[in-house]
Write a structure and sequence with these properties.
- The chain is 59% helix and 2% strand.
- The protein has a two-stranded antiparallel ribbon.
- It is globular and about 45 Å long.
- The chain is built from seven helices and two strands, in the order ααββααααα.
- About 9% of the residues have low confidence.
- By secondary structure, the chain is mainly α.
Length: 164
């Protein structure tokens, strides 16, 4: 169903992209791929990780266009596409971090996480904070890590041990 809708609908593009990606959920965040469990996406269709990246990218692009139009029309906080835009960007970051459908690219992953975080995604705030804390995708920066951990907590995503 998502495949048919994915030609023009950003949310369907995200869902179809996630289904095509069919990766594994990490049992413990940021650990090696050996510590995974087969539970993420792949909702009964054959996997195609590179095509998944294509659909996630399309979703981000289409959602950005809708958001831009909403802001241009005078809306102060954008339109309904913001959630799709942020989710697509966050999932692209995960793909670049783990090498799902693309080559691993820590710099791209950190950049996508930061973009999603700056658009309000609290999971991305924690992820980009961890990138800064550990030097993943760039130089370590404890000040920036603390900034994003605090921002995530302020927005309702408190993780034990991340309030410094």
């Amino acid at each position: 169903m998502f495949g048919r809708l994915a030609e023009s609908n950003a949310m369907a593009q995200i869902m179809y992209g996630l289904a095509l990606r069919s990766v594994y959920v990490l049992q413990l965040r940021w650990k090696s791929p050996e510590t995974v469990s087969p539970r993420r996406h792949g909702w009964g269709i054959p996997t195609d990780p590179p095509l998944a990246i294509d659909y996630l990218s399309r979703a981000a692009s289409n959602s950005a266009a809708v958001e831009s139009a909403a802001l241009s029309s005078g809306m102060k906080k954008g339109g309904a596409a913001k959630g799709e835009l942020v989710l697509a960007i966050y999932e692209l970051a995960n793909s670049f971090r783990m090498g799902w459908g693309v080559e691993k690219d820590p710099v791209a992953a950190r950049s996508y996480y930061e973009t999603a975080a700056n658009l309000g995604d609290t999971d991305a705030m924690n992820e980009v904070a961890r990138c800064y804390e550990e030097g993943f995708g760039g130089k370590k920066d404890r000040f920036m890590a603390a900034k994003y951990y605090r921002l995530a907590e302020k927005n309702g995503n408190k993780m034990l041990g991340n309030s410094w």
